Amino acid sequence: MIASFTGVIAMPARAQELPSLINVVDYSKLLPLLPDAPAGWTADKPEGSTTDVGGFKLTNVHRDYRKGEGDKAPTTAISVLDSAANPDYVEATTAAWNFTTTSTEGYSKAVTIDGNPGFETFENEGKHGTLWIMVAKRYFLQIETQGQDPAALQEWAKRVDVKKLATIK
Questions:
Q1: Which of 44, 45, 77, 133 is the most exposed place for a label (fewest CB within 10 A)?
Q2: Is the Cβ–Cβ distance between 139 and 165 less than 8 Å?
Q3: Which domains does the chain have, with CATH numbers?
Q4: pLDDT for the residue 132
Q5: What is the distance in angstroms between the CA of the first residue and the CA of the last residue of the chain?
Q6: Phi-psi region for residue 127, left (φ > 0), alpha (ψ -120 to 50) or beta?
Q7: What pTM does this model have?
């Protein structure tokens, strides 16, 4: 899961200067936001961690969902990363979301979900979609689908209480 957020672990100069001001929430506060499986789906046990790597803290939670059995079964993964310790990463990432591309292979586009900036990609081959939503300028909510239509990304997003996530400190 952490690999999905490559670049997050690079510590910006601002974080080095102000280590006492940077606090991520404990993963146990974020786990309840990972939704239960919808009807006809199963969900793995939610996972989470808060890690301190040389003074740089990182919190993330993750849960996988599956509908049916076999390699072709539709899947969804939902992750939340607290990026409070890396405001430069937040700024650079969300700035890169301001474009749209459409082709025979799929699309990438900026989106807004409940007033939060986001970015959605979809690859027609394999029906692979990813939706990132920035919540409260600190939380990256990532939803990844496989074997589902593009509309499924935002349907899954509705299952996460984004308003509650924004209030967690």
A1: 45
A2: yes
A3: 2-167 (3.40.1000)
A4: 97
A5: 22
A6: left
A7: 0.85
Taking only the tens place, the pLDDT of each residue in 25-63 is 999 999 999 999 999 999 999 999 998 877 677 899 999
| Residue 149, CA distances (Å) to 103, 113, 116, 126, 130 in order | 16, 18, 22, 10, 11
Q: What pLDDT was estimated at residue 80?
A: 97
| Block residue for tokens 């899954």 | 156
Q: How far apart are CA 152 and CA 20, in angstroms?
A: 40
* Inter-residue contact 116 to 133 (CB < 8 Å): yes
Residue whose token pair is 């969804």: 76
The answer to whether 120 and 111 have CB atoms below 8 angstroms apart is yes
Contact between 35 and 46 under an 8 Å Cβ cutoff? The reply is: no
Write down how long the chain is.
Answer: 169
Token pair belonging to 8: 């997050």
Phi, psi dihedrals of residue 75, rounded to the nearest 5°: -135, 155
What Å distances lie between residue 165 and 100, 134, 161, 162, CA to CA?
27, 11, 6, 5
- Rounded distance, CA 128 to CA 142, Å? 13
117-2-76-103 Cα dihedral, nearest 10 degrees: 60
* CA dihedral (93, 94, 98, 99) positive or negative: positive
